Input
Amino acid sequence: MKKAYIILSLGLSMTLFFHCGVKKKQASAGKDTKSMPVTGPSMTQAEIAQKRWPGTTQAQLDNGNTIYHTDCKKCHDVPAETKFGEEKWGQILDAMAPKAKLTEPQKSDLKLYILSQREYLLNQ
Ligand code: HEC
Output
């Protein structure tokens, strides 16, 4: 009776050991995909933003979207997000954020929105 119990628990722990080993392999295989291109056509704007700027929330992107299509439109129409490169957008936002009287968090949300939307559109 005792022997059977020992054999049973031995078998169980071997199964668990094997199971964990398989799981570990899968986890490291997942890591390898990190060396692949950062974004792709199947990714949503939020996925792109979260991959490039970890911690970005959908609320930030929504806020940036609203700012772009309201505050930034007070003086002129706004161009497509794809019109400028990332560096140029940085310069434009440095010049325009004070004109639109944006706070630092608002400016940062707007930048996250514009750059991720730009990349999303360019990937399509
Ligand atoms: C108070 C009015 C005003 C507001 C608000 C404003 N802009 Fe402008 N914007 C201007 C003026 C004036 C120009 C053209 C002269 C210049 O570049 O300063 C301009 C030019 C631009 C250009 C063209 C730059 C280029 O090099 O072709 C872009 C893009 C732009 N604004 C984006 C924005 C964005 C994004 C916002 C919101 C953060 C914004 N603007 C808010 C007045 C404004």
About this structure: Residues 2-32 form the longest helix (31 residues). The CA atoms of residues 41 and 72 lie 28 Å apart. The chain has a mean pLDDT of 82. Residues 2-35 form one domain.
